[in-house]
Amino acid sequence: MSQTPYPLHTALSLAASGVPVLPLRRGKVPFGNCTRCADNACGGRPIMKTPGPCRCPGVCHAWAAATTEPAVIVSPEWAAAWRRAVCVGYHPGGAGLTIVDLDDADAIAWARTALPATRTVPTTRGLHWIYRGTMASRNAVRPGVDIKSTMSYARYLGPGTGAMTDLPDAVRALAVKKPSPAPTAPHPVTVSVTAREGTCPHRTPRFLDRGIAMAEQRITAASSAVHNTVYRTFLAVLSTHGRCGCLTDTHVARLFAAAQAKGESPRHCTEAWANALTALGM
Q1: Cβ distance 130 to 99 under 8 Å?
Q2: Three-state SS for 251?
Q3: pTM for the complete prediction?
Q4: How many Å apart are CA 214 and CA 46, to the nearest integer?
C-alpha cells in the first residue's frame, strides 16, 4: 500500500485529534471559493457545526471549510486542492485554542514579560504561543502581535514545545481594547458634478446609505484577496458616489472600519483610498 503523502497525512492525523483542518495553497492562504459560491452567492458558510445555507462539498470559505471528518478530507472534491497544497492549515477556535502570533523579536520579548508561558511553535519570523480556550480573533492588537482563534486559520507548523496553559485574561484584554478611530480620507472628496435638473440623486438618503451598506458587506464577506477587495470596493464607491460632494467623512470612516475589521491596517486603507482617487482622476 502506498503511503499517504504529506500534507494529507498530517491533515488526517490532526483531524483524528480533533483539530479542524484545511489545505493551504501557495502563499499559505486558503483556496478561493468555487464558481457557485463566488462573491458569497451561496449565502456563505457559517461557523463550524452550525447549520447554514451553503452545502458546497469543496474547499470553500476559508476557515469555515476546516473539518475533522476524514471522509471530507479525502473526498474527490478536496483531492485537487490537496494536490496543489503546500501546507496544512487549521481553525484554532474549532480546536478550542487561541494563538498569539508573535511576528518579531520585539513582540516575543514583550510576550515573555507580559504573558504566562505556554506551548510555543517556531514560525518563519517569530513564534506562535498557543493557549487552551477561545476568543475573538483580531490582527495588530499591538506591534507585531495578532490573535488567531475563532473565525480564523493558522498554518500548522508542528506540535511545539512546553505545556499548554489556559487562555489568560491578559490575552483576552488585547482584543477588547478600543480600536483606533478610522482615519478620514487623505483629502475631502469635493469634486462637484451637478446632476440633472440641478438636484443630486445621492441626496436621497436611501440611495447613498444602501450603497455604503453594500460596500461594507462586500468587504466583510471577503474570504481571500482582502487587499484587492478593499481597493475595488473603494473604487466602486468613489465611482458612484464620489463626484457630487455627498460622500462624507462619516461614510468613509464606515468603509475604513469594515476594512480594518478584516485585518487591513489604517495605512493600507489610506493607500487604497488614495489609489482609487488617483485611478478615477479625482
Answers
A1: yes
A2: helix
A3: 0.62
A4: 19
